[in-house]
Design a protein that fits this description.
The chain is mostly helical. Helices cover 59% and strands 11% of the residues. The protein has eleven helices and three strands; from the N terminus they run H-H-H-H-H-H-H-H-H-H-E-E-E-H. It has helices at residues 4-10, 18-24, 30-34, 42-63, 69-79, 82-91, 106-111, 113-131, 133-149, 159-171, 210-225; strands at residues 176-183, 190-197, 200-207. It has a three-stranded antiparallel β-sheet with strand order 1-2-3. A hairpin with a 6-residue loop joins strand 1 (176-183) and strand 2 (190-197). Helix 4 (42-63) crosses helix 8 (113-131). The radius of gyration is 22 Å and the shape is elongated. The termini are far apart. The model has no long low-confidence stretch (mean pLDDT 89).
């Protein structure tokens, strides 16, 4: 594990309480080897999650003045989802600073969205407590603003909803989905679905669940309508 002072010095942040950040970078598995209890990032993660949600919501409100509440909520969920936060953490090499038990290696940490997401939120919690909301706000903004500004509205709405809205607006009628068959063992089924409008098959899709197959079919139907 690298020195966390080095990390913040490289990022232009002068921390006051090193113990807070050491805690933010401490995975619960570290306790087993160190014979400590509750000396990990979980409480800071709770705080960071709240601060992250607030700052992200504030930025969305400011940069998308005409976006309705429903899309704003979807965009916020997209920004703060596990994969997004883990990728933010990877972009600044968080894995090199995380303390874990001996059973977890740096490579495993870097491959774990869950660990990286938790630590990212914990660091934000520590930064808020150590530096205040203004510094925490700017730190979060540096990660999320590009994703907020360049969002594709279509990405915020699932394909089934978009297809239904288009067909309803154009023809005042609904599409339906029909499972044609499924194959594979019970624990690993693949479903095949047709999306149908007025007796015409618009597209076919497949997936590991009926919902996933329907989404695949709807996406293909939308692509056909745009070509």
């Amino acid at each position: 594990m690298n020195n966390i002072k080095e990390f913040f010095a490289n990022n232009g942040i002068h921390i006051k309480r090193e113990d807070l950040f050491l805690l933010a970078f401490t995975h619960p598995s570290y306790n087993a080897d160190a014979k400590t209890k509750h000396h990990d990032y979980e409480r800071l993660e709770y705080m960071g999650d709240a601060v992250l949600g607030f700052v992200t919501a504030d930025l969305i409100y400011k940069y998308h003045p005409h976006m309705d509440q429903g899309l704003m909520s979807k965009l916020r969920s997209n920004i703060v989802r596990s994969a997004s936060l883990a990728n933010y953490a990877r972009s600044v090499n968080f894995a090199n600073y995380i303390r874990t038990g001996n059973s977890i290696q740096t490579k495993q940490i870097n491959e774990s969205n869950k660990i990286l997401e938790d630590v990212f939120e914990a660091v934000i919690g520590a930064l808020y407590l150590d530096q205040g909301i203004d510094i925490a706000y700017q730190y979060i903004k540096a990660f999320v603003l590009d994703d907020i500004r360049r969002v594709n509205i279509d990405d915020l709405t699932d394909a089934k909803t978009r297809l239904q809205e288009e067909m309803q607006a154009e023809y005042q009628d609904r599409v339906t989905y029909e499972v044609t068959h499924a194959d594979g063992p019970a624990h690993d089924r693949t479903f095949y679905v047709d999306v149908i409008f007025n007796g015409v098959i618009l597209a076919s899709g497949k997936g590991k669940s009926k919902k996933e197959a329907e989404e695949d079919a709807a996406r293909k139907a939308l692509n056909k309508r745009r070509t």
